[in-house]
Amino acid sequence: MKILIVSATNFEIAPLLKNVKKIRSGKNLHTFFFEKHTIDVLFTGIGMTSTAFHLGKTLNKKYDLAINAGVSGSFKREIPLGAVVNVVSDCFSDIGAEDGNKFLTLKEMGLKEVSSLKPQISSPKIRKTLSDLPQVNGITVNTVHGNSASIKKVVQKFHPDIESMEGAAFFFSCNREKIPCLQIRAISNYVKKRNKKNWKLNLAVKNLCNSIEQILQNL
């Protein structure tokens, strides 16, 4: 298969890249070989704008599968730190309009085609490789939450399990190009007042890369 792995940073998938054979290096796009797969790895930088820009320059190569791999924060304490999850829906939670004291989502504004984004996977084989991963709903934000008042509002409005800064842009780009896609994330922290001492970044990265490698082996 010809596979694209998309990550905001090198750090998030560095352990995975130690186990694959590099063929070519570019500025943001690198090519590797793993078992029977040719894999392009795209580092987009953090955020939905950078993600959409780099995907727009890359997806014309037409991949069999694209995987967004990264860490994320969880709103749900029942999801343990370090857990790897399969994001089955995502949305741009802070794009919308203010109407007095209310916030109108894209869906409430009538823009349903970008209000709820999902992975487009029809292959039973790919679905089977994901069967052991918990399914979660995500939101994509420009500013990660760290204030109790804003956290309460976004939870009441969207009922998210996790948040990232790239996921919805990845789904949107892949869906428009009709490329099968997955968003696989590992939980590095809980969404609350920012305190990186409580984060489990290294554990999340380790578990994420192990899961991505298992997925590649099973394809």
CATH fold-level topology: Rossmann fold
Beta-strand segment tally: 11
* Corresponding CATH superfamily: Nucleoside phosphorylase domain
Distance between the termini: 8 Å
- The total number of structural domains is 1
Q: Which consecutive residue ranges, at least 5 long each, have pLDDT under 50?
A: none
- Kindly report the average pLDDT value: 94
**CATH-defined architecture:** 3-Layer(aba) Sandwich
Outline the biggest β-sheet: 5 strands, mixed, barrel
Helix content: 25-40%
**Quick one: CATH class?**
Alpha Beta
Counting helices, strands and paired strands, the structural category is alpha/beta
Walk across the major sheet and give the strand order.
5-10-9-6-11
Order of helices and strands: EHEEEHEEEEHEHEHEH
Write up what this structure looks like.
- This protein has 219 residues and is α/β, with parallel strands linked by helices.
- The chain has a single domain (2-218), classed as Rossmann fold (3-Layer(aba) Sandwich).
- It has six helices and eleven strands.
- The protein has helices at residues 14-17, 48-56, 124-129, 148-158, 167-176, 201-218; strands spanning 2-7, 21-24, 29-34, 37-43, 65-74, 84-89, 96-99, 102-105, 135-140, 162-164, 181-190.
- The strands form two sheets. The chain has a five-stranded mixed β-barrel with strand order 5-10-9-6-11. Strands 7-8 form a two-stranded antiparallel sheet.
- A hairpin with a 4-residue loop joins strand 2 and strand 3 (29-34).
- The longest helix has 18 residues, at 201-218.
- The mean pLDDT is 94.
